[in-house]
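note to self — DONT lose this again. spent like an hour looking for the file last time. sequence + predicted structure for the chain T wanted, 385 res
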Amino acid sequence: MAKPESPSYSHSKLEIFDFCPFAYQKIYHDKIPRAESEALKIGSLLHRIIADYLNRLIHYGTPTDWEWAQGATPREAPPDVPEIWERFYSSFSLPPMEAPGVERKLAFNRDWEAVEFFGPDAFFRAVVDLAFRQDALAVVVDWKSNRAVPETVEKNLQLRIYGWAVKTALYPDVQEVLLRLHFLRYGAEREILLSPDDLVGVPQELKEQIAIIEAEKHFNPRPGSFCSWCGVQTHCPVISQALVPIEVLAPATREQATKAATLLLAIGEMEKVLTARLNDWVKENGALSIGDLIYGPVPSLRYDMIPQEVTAHLMELGVPREVAWAALNISKSSISSALSQGGYKGKRKPERDAIMEQVLAEVPSKTTESIKFYKQRAECIPSEP
């Protein structure tokens, strides 16, 4: 399919091309809808709620509104969202600000001049979560739903784009731009201060990266860490050639679904064998490089902890008893394992089972559901509808 006559770009587009040119072509040239991952759903929902909340605070000129925030907690959302949202609104207070803007949509033409976001000459676009100024300082806040928080923040191109775009389109007379990354899961923040020298080269860097994309002819797949969340895996020739036809990767009928389940079962067993043999090869010959990933040894430190001693030591250090005991992370499996060892090893199984029943009867429980393989009984064999 031919490229659009008037393409536009954003940092996310540049990033996807850098990860995998094939995914870029499918998403932006062929307009293939991306499968929405759980992480993307969580991030999108949190950004929407936060934007509504901030617009309300700015409109009424109040630093917080817990009552409204509690009522805005989504009823149908991934389980992480209510907890993250409560952590955010219970600790966030709107700071003093001038000329604030939430979800500011900024666009620039090919001469890197500010234009209308949806205008025909919009060549590069950026959306800023929160921007405001404090005297000669511009502040840009970016909400992150990542599970990891970096120790430090580098002046990478994405952050410099935010700083340059805000200074160019919103606050041209500010001297510096403060970038604040707010990691919603943990209430943690990382900051970096950008000077005019950090921003001056942004348009040229963007121009060079876009030129590489526009000169690309083949858009070959580039396997790596992006494969798990590109959203167009079912169209990828690397995946389909390595595994199965597209109709099994995206089953639409019961027959195709049965083939997919059969393959999944085989892959589970194959993975054990393949992992063992591949690990032996790596131990002898060294790590492998797959795209931007390395398959090789990763050092880790394991602790052989004695629960009683650790719990006692925590309480000696002033940790409350309920917190110290919560750190034990007791499960049904760990109790069963403990009863099968030590002084209880000689007891008969019915006695151990009776102890388990009494213990489990005293603790809260809830029913959850997971989809997995299990032994079928005659009455459970599914039939065609």
